[in-house]
Write a structure and sequence with these properties.
Shape: elongated
Helix content: 25-40%
Strand order of the largest sheet: 1-2-3-4-5-6
Radius of gyration: 22 Å
Distance between the termini: 66 Å
Number of strands: 12
Number of domains: 2
Length: 279
């Protein structure tokens, strides 16, 4: 097999290896061992391609989202990289040509990032060259990275807020009897102690696909007895582990009686339901 050399972009802060395909990475590094470079490859950002790119022991990696695709396969490599501690991002395939690394490097726009990349300040909407610069220089690195990605999306007249956080385990004492929490774990029995311990004003979690014996929503009835309003979103409508997705994307699939008394109904958007819970 012929060796496909990448275009190499050098700066005082490090190098970028720009490949037309992830399939070219292994052959190149076998002949020219490298480590700690940023790899930009105009292949889909899936697991197979991520394994190939990892042969270069990259400092960070950027691929294409290929329209995300079935089961999220176009970006599944982002979590593969995350498990290995490698910052990674995917480029909107509408902004860059597949199989053309140079075009992706020059014109690509980021659509998805993993947590390791977010810690460096990478975010959707950022150009590839800007993202690469952020990796190499650390110029966009936030002063503090919140692993819970806590985000206040609305504050009501009485000082109560709607807060997104990735797990109910990340609730804070200040949420007690005050805030509506939009979280992203299931609503099963293991989270009951968190609801009773933190006692938010209300909550929205995922139904986890409901599951055997309705176990994914079993906590709703339990905390009803404590007067805690809660509901769940359909796991097919919002990403588990992403509280922001619960709020922005979720559709209510189950409610307890306390939440129903506040006007929450199955089929509502989570945003509408959160306002009912808040008020």
């Amino acid at each position: 097999m012929s060796i496909h050399a990448p275009e190499i972009v050098s700066s005082p802060h490090g190098r970028v290896l720009v490949f037309d395909s992830a399939t070219h990475v292994e052959g190149y590094v076998a002949q020219a061992p490298c480590q700690g470079d940023v790899v930009v490859a105009a292949s889909y950002a899936g697991v197979l391609c991520a394994r190939m790119v990892m042969s270069a022991a990259p400092r960070a990696a950027i691929g294409l989202d290929c329209a995300i695709g079935k089961d999220g396969a176009g970006i599944a490599g982002l979590w593969y990289y995350e498990a290995l501690g490698v910052p990674a991002a995917a480029v909107d395939t509408r902004t860059a040509e597949m199989g053309n690394g140079k075009d992706m490097f020059q014109h690509g726009v980021i659509s998805r990032v993993n947590d390791a990349a977010e810690r460096l300040g990478l975010m959707p909407g950022m150009g590839v060259q800007e993202a690469v610069d952020a990796v190499l220089t650390g110029s966009r690195k936030p002063a503090h990275f919140d692993p819970a990605r806590r985000l206040v999306v609305h504050t009501g007249a009485q000082g109560r807020s709607i807060v997104c956080t990735d797990s109910i385990a990340f609730a804070l004492p200040e949420d007690r009897d005050t805030n509506v929490l939009c979280t992203a774990g299931h609503t099963g029995r293991s989270v009951i102690e968190y609801f009773r311990g933190f006692r938010p004003w209300g909550f929205i979690c995922s139904d986890g696909g409901i599951g055997k014996n309705d176990s994914g929503i079993s906590a709703l009835a339990e905390v009803d007895r404590d007067g805690i309003a809660g509901c769940s979103v359909d796991a097919l409508t919002a990403r588990m582990g992403d509280g922001r997705s619960t709020y922005f994307d979720g559709v209510i699939s189950a409610v307890n009686q306390t939440a129903a008394a506040k006007g929450v109904r199955i089929g509502q958007t989570a945003r509408e339901a959160a306002l009912h819970l808040l008020n």
